[in-house]
């Protein structure tokens, strides 16, 4: 009987774990079978979503690639790709119920890896792969068209996604009025680089509005002078009328299919220092579904590598080792396609260096190697 490892989630963490197991663990376990389950048939490089929504800047293949061809080099009996979503997991019986376009399947596993990440509250959000590839690309293209047509744009939420989105739009369209709303008295949650990032936004011409927490929004009827516009309401009672409202706040973990015993109060997954899910046997997790110490591509990358290594150690009868994260806290935020703000630990990084590290490509050059496994 095959040794079956089910990996849920076809994003950064899930792809890396699947490739590492197939490339390395299969050398000592020829009966290994990896089943990768992804709601999206494609890998959406969401780090570049803030630039992808700006019309005419990126080609679709720069931020969206099919997953299955990247695994074609492995024996057919060692890998299966399922486009579907996990609906329920029985961690005692070691089964997962998956819903696909053609029906339901029950998958039995020896080890289970959770990498289903997070989503934005707005189901039409283009910042993450919230649905099928058709739905995700439709959201991106719709946002492109709306940005092209809008003269006044409100970006709500001044975390990294909001800051980068406002910067990308204003960098490309100097004739558009772009307003960034921050619920707090500083952008980026008051991080040490907040002041630098705000100054870069102002240099671009972005209007930064602090202490502007959004409490609601609604689209006005098409008829009349204000037809088709959106009215955004702030906590202080102020309203802003805009051609396009882009919310970037409100992230939720994709954990509804999991039993409460493996979740924290905030619905993120409980893990130990080895990447093992607590209160469950042979279940592991990596990436945004954990959100500790925080969500980031670099952290997800390290967690996925650590989980794959520990599964390999367990299968070979060896002791697991703690997942090693980066030794210093790094945070870089692109502001347009030429500037940015960042720090490594407590040391600020020059704007030009942030551009070279992140802003120049938003990491799109790494995507093919992640999809086909050549990066691991």
- Biggest sheet record: 7 strands, mixed
Give the low-confidence spans: none
Order of helices and strands: EHEEHEEEEEEHEHEHEEEEEEEHEEEHH
User: Number of DSSP strands?
Assistant: 21
Provide the domain count.
2
How many helices? The count is 8
Q: DSSP strand (E) fraction?
A: 25-35%
Radius of gyration (CA) equals 21 Å
Structural class: alpha/beta
Side by side, the strands of the main sheet go: 7-6-5-2-1-8-18
- Report the span from N to C terminus: 28 Å
Keywords: FAD, Flavoprotein, Oxidoreductase
Organism: Apiospora kogelbergensis
GO molecular function: electron-transferring-flavoprotein dehydrogenase activity; flavin adenine dinucleotide binding
Pfam family, one: Pyr_redox_2
């Amino acid at each position: 009987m095959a040794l079956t490892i089910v990996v849920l989630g076809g994003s950064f963490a899930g792809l890396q774990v699947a490739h590492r197991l197939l490339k390395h663990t299969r050398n000592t376990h020829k009966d290994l079978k990896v089943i990768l389950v992804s709601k999206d048939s494609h890998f959406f490089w969401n780090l570049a979503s803030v630039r992808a929504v700006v019309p005419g800047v990126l080609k679709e293949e720069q931020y969206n690639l099919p997953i299955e061809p990247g695994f074609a080099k492995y024996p057919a009996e060692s890998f299966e790709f399922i486009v579907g979503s996990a609906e329920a997991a029985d961690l005692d019986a070691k089964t997962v119920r998956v819903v696909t376009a053609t029906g339901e399947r029950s998958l039995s596993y020896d080890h289970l890896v959770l990498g289903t990440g997070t989503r934005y509250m707005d189901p039409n959000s283009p910042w993450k792969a919230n649905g099928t590839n058709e739905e995700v690309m439709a959201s991106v293209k719709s946002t492109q068209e709306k940005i092209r047509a809008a003269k006044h744009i409100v970006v709500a939420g001044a975390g990294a996604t909001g800051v980068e989105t406002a910067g990308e739009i204003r960098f490309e369209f100097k004739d558009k009025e772009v307003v960034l709303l921050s619920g707090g008295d500083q952008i980026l949650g008051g991080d040490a680089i907040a002041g630098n990032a705000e100054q870069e936004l102002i240099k671009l011409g972005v209007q930064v509005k602090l202490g502007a927490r959004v409490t609601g929004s609604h689209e006005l009827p098409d008829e009349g002078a204000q037809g088709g516009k959106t009215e955004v309401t702030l906590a202080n009672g102020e309203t802003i009328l805009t051609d396009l409202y882009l919310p970037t706040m409100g992230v939720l973990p994709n954990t509804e299919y999991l039993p409460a015993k493996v979740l924290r109060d905030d619905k993120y997954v409980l893990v130990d220092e080895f990447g093992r899910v607590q209160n469950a046997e042979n279940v592991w997790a990596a990436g945004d579904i954990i959100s500790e110490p925080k969500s980031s591509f670099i952290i997800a990358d390290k967690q996925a590598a650590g989980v794959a290594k520990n599964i390999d150690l367990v299968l070979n009868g060896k002791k697991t080792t703690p997942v090693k994260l980066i030794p210093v806290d790094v945070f870089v935020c692109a502001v347009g396609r030429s500037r940015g703000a960042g720090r490594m630990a407590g040391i600020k990084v020059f704007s030009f260096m942030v551009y070279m590290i992140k802003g120049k490509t938003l990491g799109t050059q790494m995507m093919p190697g992640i999809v086909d496994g050549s990066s691991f």
